[in-house]
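User: I'm preparing a small set of examples for a lab meeting where we compare how different chains pack in three dimensions. I only have the primary sequence for this one, and I'd like the structure in token form so I can line it up with the others. Please keep the answer compact; I'll paste it straight into my notes.
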Amino acid sequence: MKKIYRNKKAMAAVLAAAVTVSTLLSGCGERTNEELIVRNETPSAPSGCVEGCTCTGCICCGTAGSADNVLASLPETETAEETVPSSTQEESSTPETEQESQTESTEESAQEQTTTQEEPDTSGLSEIEQLSEGEIAARKEQQANFEEARATLYGLKNSKDKTSKINQMDRQILANNAYDFSKKNIVFIGDSITEGITSAVDTNGNRISYVTYADSYLHFQRVLNHGMGGRMFSVYADESLSLALNFGNVTNVDSDIIVVFAGVNDYLSTPANKRFGDINDKLSTAGYCGSVRYFMKQLKEYYSDNEIFFVTMYNTNKKVECTYSDVKGQPTLNDYMDVQRKLAKEYGFHVIELYNIGFMDCTDKESADFYLRDGLHPKDNGNIVLGEHIAAELSLYFGQK
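Assistant: Understood. Below is the structure token output for the 401-residue chain.
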């Protein structure tokens, strides 16, 4: 990703805004979608803010963390005031000058009308397409500033407050989105978290998962949700649930972007003689490592022109114990995610990190109660911040290409 070097004072101001982000929630509060569920309305980006907050695109304008306030913290450029010479003001008008003035005024009026008539029709263009090159450049620079400010939050202790602070910066990034996704098709591949089995349902009977919220910000041309409960890379349950063995049924030939969010079921499954596999064995398809490699190999072979992202799982208190036939001890959830990180790098895919940055870490009760329905699957609060984080990562990557 291309780096943009900015004014140090401007960056310091943005960092200061990020450090004081703990006050952001006081003005707007935590967002919930419960009221929408009662009214059977389909959620959109603004629906995430609580009642009483004046919001635009789910950016709470009345809080210290709004896009306007953070932008206001950056150094302003001075502008020179135009002055009219006193001699010009004191000059008297003559009949000849008045006639010339009227003639010039008529010509200018006709010219303005002609210019107005020749303005291009932008009604069919997306918001991004209507922006000038200068406006696009300014948005990109703001995004990069917010990304650097957000990174300073990753070192905080994992907690609900930390995730809320990261989410505030995600929303600043999305408010400055500089890439037009309106002509892009995207497919989300995953398990029950992607499917949204414990989430709300819209008026058409569709489940509202993090996919819904990501789309509400980026406005893709077409979105396919290929999430299914129980799906995993390995073959420990029904073969139809294996990503590695059902590659053709979970991908889509018309997709431009592929996002894969899976692996937690591989970790939680407890079959007899479970195999972890060998990540360095490039020929074997055995175990978890072999299954992930086989799936990525197929992605590389058939979708080499696509932009492909793997999302690591957020941490939870869910742990299992089982007997592995090829390794001693109990591999952790992060061990499973590390396989995806390393193989994604090997095949040239991108990683959207949740686990290592502590985003939506639900190992403490406060976070689990707020973000999760059952200790694993997101409730609406979880789907909102998860969708916004994934959308922010896509916006950053494509916006800075």
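A couple of notes for your slides: The longest strand covers residues 185-190. The chain is about 45% helix and 5% strand.

User: Perfect, thanks.
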